[in-house]
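Mods, move this if it's the wrong board.
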Amino acid sequence: MNLFPRRLRFWTSLLVVLSLSALDFGPAVAGLAPSRVSGATSIASARDADMVMAQRALESKVVAQKLRDYGVAPADAQAQLASMSDADLHTLASASKGLPSGGDGTGAIIGVLVIIILVVVLLRLMHKEVVVK
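Not the wrong board. Structure tokens:
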């Protein structure tokens, strides 16, 4: 069974040999990139670090909603945060470390539901019976 004519086989093999010889098969070199300051944050002191932690806590959805429930405007909270003493700011930043950094858990619930649906679909494709009691 001769699929390719003789001339087509010759030119195809010549093209493959030339293209493979044109590739550079050098060894791969990998290494760590040097670290450098990105310029996004300028944390020069412990107060600046505490300020960043406290501001991130104020940006949380749960904390922002609770502040609105108590009648505190976000601008007022930021102004009060800027006028705090170093000790009070450090206490607030230490307390805000325990806050969840994600959302409100909706993503986790959706992820679990997607996994359950995938398992049910796979079981149905394997002709297994799925019984929910």
